[in-house]
Amino acid sequence: MVAKWDVFFLHNCRYTQPSPKNKLIVIAYIEPSPHGFLINSKINDYLKNNPRLLPCEALISSSQHSFLKYDSYVDCRDIFAFLEGELVNPRGSISEKAKQTIITAARHCPVLENIHKKRILNL
Asked: Which residues sit opposite 57 in a β-bridge?
C-alpha cells in the first residue's frame, strides 16, 4: 500500500525529459490519486539561473535516508500523478525533518499550483 512520504524507485520514469530514466520519487499526497515529486542529485542550471525558483527545491540528507547515495533535492515545482502499479519498488520513507523541508518548499514555490499545495498541506 502506498502512503504519503514514501519513496519509490521508478525504472524509466515517464516524467523525465528528454527521455525516460530511472528516478526516485517521494509521494506528497494520496487522494484522489498518488502524486509525487522527483528527487534529483543536484539543482539543475535552469534553476540556478532563476533565483525565484530556488525556494522550490528541498534539500534532503543522505545521512537520514539510507536509500540516498548523496544529499539530494526534491523538486517541488512540478508534481506528478502515478498509478499504483508504477509504485512497486519502495525504498523507505522521508524523515520528519525532510517532510518539513519539503512542505516548506511546496508552500513557498511560486509555480506549484494551489490545488496541490492544499492537498500536500491537508487544507
From this structure: 75
Closest CA to 109 of 73, 59, 75, 60: 75
Residue 116, sorted as left (phi over 0), alpha (psi -120 to 50) or beta, turns out to be alpha
- pTM > 0.90: yes or no: yes
The domains found in the chain, sorted by start residue, are: 6-121 (2.30.30.110)
pLDDT tens sequence across 37-79:
999 999 999 999 999 999 999 999 999 999 999 999 999 999 9
Give me the sign of the Cα torsion angle 111, 80, 26, 6: positive
Report d(CA 111, CA 31) in Å as an integer. 21
Three cell numbers written together for 37: 515529486
For residue 67, the Cα-to-chain-centroid distance in whole angstroms is: 14
Q: How far apart are CA 40 and CA 42, in angstroms?
A: 5
> 49 with 116: CB under 8 angstroms?
no
